[in-house]
Amino acid sequence: MRASQSLSRRVALFTSLGFAVVVVLSVLVMAAVLRVESDEQRDDALREMSPFVMALLTRAASLDGQTEMDAVSPALSDLDGHETILVFALVDQNGVVRASSQDHVAFPYPKSVGTNRFYEDETYRYFISPPNENGAVVILGDALGERAESVFESLLGFVGPMVPLVAISFLLVRWVTRSALRPLNHLRDEIAARDRGLLSPVDSAGLPSELHTVVATLNGFMSRLSKALDAERHFATNAAHELRTPLAVALAKVQHLKSRQAGRDVTEIEAVEQALKRMSRLVERLLQLGRAEAGAGTLDKAIDLREVLELVVDERAGANPEIAARLDVHLSDAPVMSKVSADDFAIVASNLIDNALRYAAPNSPVSVVLEAGALTVSNAGEVIAADELSTLTTRFKRHDARGGGLGLGLYISDTLARNLGGDLTLQSPAIGARDGVSAVFTFPRDEPRENVND
Fold it and tell me: Which contiguous run of DSSP H or E holds residue 331?
């Protein structure tokens, strides 16, 4: 899968590519125009030079047979064999070349191609002047290679600075788009902060007008989603409340029926009892889930969490002597003060302790340590891989289905921890051990203020 590019990079890239295409088209148009204009200028130069060359050559040569070319020939012969831009020749009325700058140049025959016109071969572009009073013409030739080279050098002088200009334009456009898209990044961060616990409307103040419609649509969607989640939450909570009493009554009747079956097979009755207990635990978890997802709050006054933890431990130890023997509780000597509500802390602590008892090695101890700012519950058992450990706080996720859990305890504890401004972390192996798991619930502390008398 290809890595996605940022919007600012895409805008800068496509804008720069568009600019580069414009530059290339401009260069092509400029090359065509420059070639035409250059040819016109050089043609005009040949035409304007022809009378002067004619006057110079006819002055040095006599067309009636008496010549002064003997004095001119050495100078012209010095030009022969050299690559020159301009070549010229004097042709009499009979088509005889009387004087030329280059003997190896095949000058056109005026009687065949005409006079007062331009003529072009593979090497030169010639201008054949009108004949003078004696019928002589002068032929001026301009090298085609020199014409092409002059056009190329002119284009090179134009294109050279454009290459770094395209690169500079890319950087400039990217900076501009990043600055212009900064409100979009702010909107992205606002959307990313929304989850099941925070579905408040996004404030469109300060955003460009183009994003107001997007924000309005998004707020409408979150409003509908919030109502749907509230309805789901209320249904689960109300259903759990309604089921608690019938389940308690049914469980009491089954236990009473079991007590009356002395000496009889009560296997089926025990199966019903276990099913009712499981349903009771599920109802309790649904109530806790509704509380967790409704958003936990803090108290105005700090409480000592040691007392809450003692109640949670006593409740479990009193219900089962085997559990009492397995719990190894260590409480801080100093008060553990926090504004976390007692109910929320009790839910987290009970879920962590129940989870540790359920998945610990048989008859192994479960360590419960409460210190300032943290509750740590550790149990012995197999080591859990890090990738699986990170998923255990999701809904209905269980490490081992044989444990009989519902897969909600760690999810509820993690949700409450985050809502309270704390954190729940899982470590395997357990802290200070070679195996097992440690669950660490960190919560906001309430530091006591010292009274200072001035």
Answer: strand 327-331
